[in-house]
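Re: that chain you flagged

S.,

Sorry for the slow reply, it's been a week of failed gels. I finally had a moment to sit down with the sequence you sent. For the record, here it is as I used it:
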Amino acid sequence: MIRKLKNILAAAFVCILLICLATCLGISAGKHEKAVCSGIRISITDSTECRFVSESEISEYIGREFGSCTGKPVGSIELSRIEKFLDNRSAVLKSEAYITPDGMLNIDITQRQPVIRFEGTSGGFYADRDGYIFPLRENYTSHVPIVNGHIPVRIKPGYKGPAPDEESELWLRKILSMTDYMDRSRIWGENIVQIYVRENGDLIMVPREGKERFIFGGPESFEDKFMRMGKYYTAIRPSKEDGHYSTVNVKYDGQIICR
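Prediction finished late last night. Pasting the C-alpha cells below so you have them in one place:
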C-alpha cells in the first residue's frame, strides 16, 4: 500500500514538473515571438590578412535581399535563407546566422582562401585549395603564386564554381599540386616569381635571379623536373658566367638541355 502511494506521488510530481516546464517553454516561446531584432552583428571569423569580403558588404547584401532586419520580429527572420543566400556569394565559404537572447542577429562568415591566381588572355580568377574558382576582387589582391599566359580553363568573366569540364579540372588540380609542392619546399616557392603558360601548354619558370628561363613542360612529374632544376644550379651554373645560358629545358625525363 505504501509502495503504491509512493508511486502515485512520484507520478504526480513528474506531471507537475512537466506542466511547469511546458508553461515556461510556452512563455519563453511567446516572448521570443514578440521579441524584435535589435540589430545585426557581422564577424569575419578567419584571418584578417585576407579580406575578400567586408562586414559592410555582407550587411549590404542582406539589406538588398531581405530589407532591414532591425525592428522585425525575430520569429520572422529566416536564418536558413540568409545562410543559403550568403553561401552563394563567391568569396564566402560558409556562413552561420543565429540570434542571441539580446535580439541581435549575428552573422559569422568564413571566407574562401585563394592559393593561386590565374591571369589569362581573357581575364583572371582565383582558385582555392579544393579547385573552386572565384573572381578577382577590385578592392583586394592576395599574395599568392600567379600563373599567366594561355590558361586552358575557359570560363566567363565572374564565373564561380568548380572547373567547367574534366580537362580543365585535371589541369587545375595538377597546377595546384605543383604550386603546393613549391610552397612546401620553400626554395622554389620563394625563388620562382612567374609561371607562364605557352600556347603549346609548356610552363616557363622565371626565377627571381638570373636570366635563365626554365622550360618545364606540363605540370606532370614536377618533382623530377624541380630536381633537374636543382642539379642545374649545383652542377652546371657554377662553372659558367652569369647569363651564359638563356634557356634551360628540364621537360624531358633525365635531361637538362641548356642553350
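What I noticed first: The helical segments are 2-34, 55-66, 79-87, 166-185, 187-191, 222-236.

Talk soon,
D.
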